[in-house]
Amino acid sequence: QSVLTQPPSVSGAPGQRITISCTGSSSNIGAGNDVHWYQQLPGTAPKLLIFANNNRPSGVPDRFSGSNSGTSASLAITGLQADDEADYYCQSYDNSLSGSVFGGGTKVTVL
Amino acid sequence: EVQLLESGGGLVQPGGSLRLSCAASGFTFSNYAMSWVRQAPGKGLEWVSGISSGGSTYYADSVKGRFTISRDNSKNTVFLQMNSLRGDDTALYYCAKYSLSWVVGALDIWGQGTMVTVSS
User: Cβ(A75)–Cβ(A49) under 8 Å?
Assistant: First the structure.
């Protein structure tokens, strides 16, 4: 059971917009701790996609965006493409656990 | 080029020990916190441990008392000493760099991982 809760899977057609939710609690996201998002393509190491809630590292397309509110955060992907098929993870810091925590991951499928 | 290179994984019997190493290059290692994250076969990411730039250490409850993280800034290397290994420790272990000096930032650089298999 992950501290941060994500839907196991999300799918969409090419060009569509999808969102992935990440639900936490008052000891992590709700405490104002930043949320970060990672993309893991099959057989590869995770890659930082969004940092500090809504910032993209250099090279990440602006089709990817993040937001958060209260004890939840969301990752949006617009203009969905075939090579967006991957697992996506949210991560934050938990004050009670004194460490980083991940969501369980969401598999994105492009129909 | 910014790079993390893990080593030390392998097959170990239950109850055994293993020491993982992660050699960093391309950035000022001593300025950043470092972390170990693992991924069991077919499963999601699990944060295992972190160490601040100043040497403060943090652990997931699942490994507390069994694993020890340390760093050698003179060698740009972070270590994970794993004792009393169990079957559920079987995973690909990633080394990752935090974007800040404390274990509260994003993990902006990842290694390719080293596989640890605990089995008799």
Answer: yes
CB-CB neighbors (< 8 A) of A46 in chain B: 37, 45, 94, 107, 110
- Contact criterion met (CB < 8 Å) for B44 and A87: yes
Q: Give the residue-averaged pLDDT of B46-69.
A: 98
Phi, psi of B83 (to 5 degrees): -115, 165
Torsional sign, CA A61, B105, B39, B5: positive
- Is A24:A93 a contact under the CB 8 Å cutoff? no
Residues of B with CB under 8 A from a CB of A: 35, 37, 44-47, 49-50, 58-61, 94, 99, 103-108, 110-113
Q: Which tokens in the block code for residue B97?
A: 């760099």
CB of A64 closer than 8 Å to CB of A50: yes
A11, A108 contact by CB (below 8 A):
yes
Q: Where are the beta strands (DSSP E) in B40-106?
A: 45-51, 57-59, 67-72, 77-82, 91-98
- Confidence label for B11 from pLDDT (cuts 50, 70 and 90): very high
Percent of chain A with pLDDT over 70: 100
